[in-house]
Amino acid sequence: MNRYRLIALVVLTLTLILAGCAPATPTEEVAPTEEPFSVSVVDGLGNEVALNAKPQRIVSMTLASDEILLDLVGPERLIAVTYLAADATTSNIAERPELAQIPNVIQPNPSPEQIIALEPDLVFVATFTDATVIQQLRDAGLSVFAVGFFTSIDAMQQNILTIGELVGEPQKAAAMVDEMNARLQAVAEAIAGAAEEKPSVLYLASDGWVAGSGTTVDDIITHAGGVNAAADLVDWNQVSEEAIIQMDPDYVILSPYVTDEEFASNPVFANLKAVRQGHVMAISDAYMSAASQYIVRGVEEVARFLYPERMPEG
Known about the structure:
Layout: H1 3-21, E1 39-42, E2 48-51, E3 58-60, H2 63-73, E4 78-82, E5 104-106, H3 112-117, E6 122-126, H4 131-139, E7 144-147, H5 153-166, H6 170-191, E8 200-204, E9 209-211, H7 216-223, E10 227-228, E11 236-238, H8 241-247, E12 251-254, H9 273-276, E13 280-282, H10 285-288, H11 295-306
Parallel strand pairs: 3-4, 3-6, 4-5, 6-7, 8-10, 8-12, 12-13
Antiparallel strand pairs: 1-2, 9-11
Helix pairs in contact: 5-6, 6-11
């Protein structure tokens, strides 16, 4: 081997050794890409609501959506909820510490400009929200979903699933509905065979308003093992004292807003079966008027009232 070939071989060997000892060049990290998001649902007014990005700045203008969304998306994606969310007389989330993390509170009758200024990518309103306000929000380019008026627990569950799909959390929504059904099944099993004849139950609100058939209260009473004493009436009706006496229910559930003068100390009702047997109780409106997953609490509370020996304390 001549001198020049020997030098070349030595250089090549050293190059290979140094290459083996050199630290590996770090591979460039690739940022994770979000899966494409596209969804289209129909709201309570029959309007199609379509989104091409998962909403991150959500405004809730109804108590029902406050309660549903706090469990579905948490406070991180909620930029506003209603003032009702913090009112324990009507809200099931009033004591939740996460509420303090939501930066804005929607007061009664907000102007469209106030909502638009929050720059939301999705707004939840009610079907009874002023149609002019809804249109102004849509004209501003906002995506608006109108939460419907519900008359059954099944309808509420479907609404939860629809909202879950819209906000990109279908699995969480399905889990919420599954939990509702599990608790309803637990009530059904606890009260099964408790009475040969189901007791009649009257739900009475202020000024003589009673819940008839086709109301969520009627559905609550049915799931709790009772029969609605006002089932012959459809929807909510204002009735006379004589009509209540004629119904003569086994149990009376009072809205907390019913005054003693209206019922408890009213001599007209002294001979009602429910009064004579001590079967009168006020149950929180947060439970009885819920339009969210928390309506199951209403079923549990009514079942406890009707069948205390079979229902454990919650």
